[in-house]
Amino acid sequence: MEILKGVPVPVTNAGSKYPFRQMEVGDSFIVDPQQVLNVRTASYSYAKATVGVKFSTRRNPVDQLFYCWRIE
């Protein structure tokens, strides 16, 4: 078996349906109430695989909509 060096690891979230990769700290997107658990799970997985990234998904008390914010 040949050992290869310098082969880059492919980006794993290229097909993600959520824009985590494009978000900067302070950015957010509205989450469908029926998809909150899916977004929380996906954002947790993305943050775990990406150093220095954190997200928070919760209801905004002003407009009662759910948002996912990048907080770190």
Task: Tell me what you see in this structure.
By secondary structure, the chain is an alpha+beta fold. The chain has one helix spanning 36-49, and strands spanning 28-31, 55-59, 66-70. Strands 1-3-2 form a three-stranded antiparallel sheet, with helices on one face. The radius of gyration is 15 Å and the shape is elongated. The termini are far apart. 12% of the residues are buried. The mean pLDDT is 90.
The tally of strands reads: 3
Structural class: alpha+beta
Strand order of the largest sheet: 1-3-2
The stretches of 5 or more residues where confidence is low (pLDDT under 50) are none
Q: What is the gyration radius calculated from CA atoms?
A: 15 Å
Largest sheet report: 3 strands, antiparallel
| Helical content (DSSP H or I, runs of 4+) | 10-25%
Mean pLDDT across residues: 90
End-to-end separation: 41 Å
How many separate helices? Answer: 1
Shape: elongated
In sequence order, what are the helices and strands, one letter per element?
A: EHEE
Percentage beta strand: 15-25%
